[in-house]
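Researcher: Let's continue the batch. This sequence belongs to Ubiquinol oxidase, and it's 321 residues. Same format as the previous ones, please.
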Amino acid sequence: MSRIHAASKMSGLLMRQLRGEFSPSRGIVQLHYRSNMTSSTTKEEQKVHQPPHTVADEGSDKGDKAKVKAIVSYWGVDPPKISKQDGTPWRWNCFRPWETYSADISIDVKKHHFPANFMDKFAYSTVQALKFPTYMFFQRRHMCHAMLLETVAAVPGMVGGMLLHCKSLRRFEHSGGWIKALLEEAENERMHLMTLIELSNPKWYERALVFAVQGVFFNAYFLAYLASPKLAHRIVGYLEEEAVNSYTEFLVDIEKGIFENSPAPAIAIDYWRLPADSTLKDVITVIRADEAHHRDLNHFASDIQCQGHELKDYPAPIGYH
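Model: Same format as before. Here are the structure tokens for Ubiquinol oxidase:
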């Protein structure tokens, strides 16, 4: 009899639970399994979870076939609606309109820091030793050489900015803007790579080479910066000098007709604010200008420390591309 009573009590409990007769105050969450409540709840959820209107949706309204599905989130972070001055949607997620700029091409491409002491000579010799294997491998394949160069050149700014960031936290002191300056350098170098990718697709062995070289260089530069930041910046200064020389050779071959002067990709036109009819020569010219500015910035950082000062004592040239 006790088993029959317990079974009937349990069945009654389940029936009342399914009808939604239990309240949260009794320790059981109220369930809504009625058909009419389910349909109304679904309608409310559809209203609440309706994907936000995005820039891509605006483009599709105008006849654009590309449709981007918006991510539904409970956190209140909606995709920004950014457009150009003419009202057209901004198509790039890797950079924003306020991060674009017109490159300063009034540079001295032959500028060279003469190695005067042992540290400078060691840094210069290191760069020269690293230069010849890459030149032998790529020879006149400028596009592939430039892509490898940019995958390496984007590492020092990120490593230096990260270590200066940690140093600022440890010492409870300002950085003089050098964290931002070095991270700007890394981002600028990465945008060089994003531009070159639009023009050439690296082969599998070139990707494998990038993977190996970047892994070795990142760790080596990390240790070098920990040991001597002034040496690390001097090495980067000489690396950027070689980058300027490499892009100068690239421009010479374009002018001679050895390399096709193809139209500039759209990402380069928007990033450097170039004219719509710009060509590859214009893109390489502004990239070379950026490399020259990075050369000056890193030699300047090394000079500050070689003279017995710290980077935070001198304001960093933020925005000096």
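Researcher: Any comment?
Model: The longest helix spans residues 142-171.
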